Amino acid sequence: MTSANAIQAYLADRDRILQLERSSAFDARCRSRATPLEVKASRVLAAVRRRDEADVYGAAPARTGHAGQGHRRFPGDRFLTSLDLIDKDAALMHVARRMPKGTHLHVHFNACLPPRVLLDMAKTMDRMFITSDMALVSDDSFDRCQLQFSILAPAEERDGDIFAPDYEPRQTMSFASFLTSFPHHYPHASPDSWLERKLIFSPEEAYGPLQTSEGAWDMFNGRTRMMKGLFNYETAYRTYTRLFLEDLVRDNIMYAEIRPNFMRSNQLYRDDGSGLIDNAGIMRIIIDVVTQFRSELEAAGRHFGGLKVIYCTPRIFAPCEIEAALDECLAFKKLWPEWIAGFDLVGEESKGRPLKCFISELLAFREKCEAQAIDIPFLFHCGETLELGTETDENLVDALLLGAKRIGHGFALPRHPKIMDQMKDRGICIELCPISNEVLGLTPRIGGHALYALLANDVHCTVNSDNGALFRSTLSHDFYQVMVGKADMDLFGWKQLALWSIEHACLDGEERETMTAR
Question: Which residues form the Adenosine deaminase domain (predicted)?
Answer without folding.
Answer: 213-515
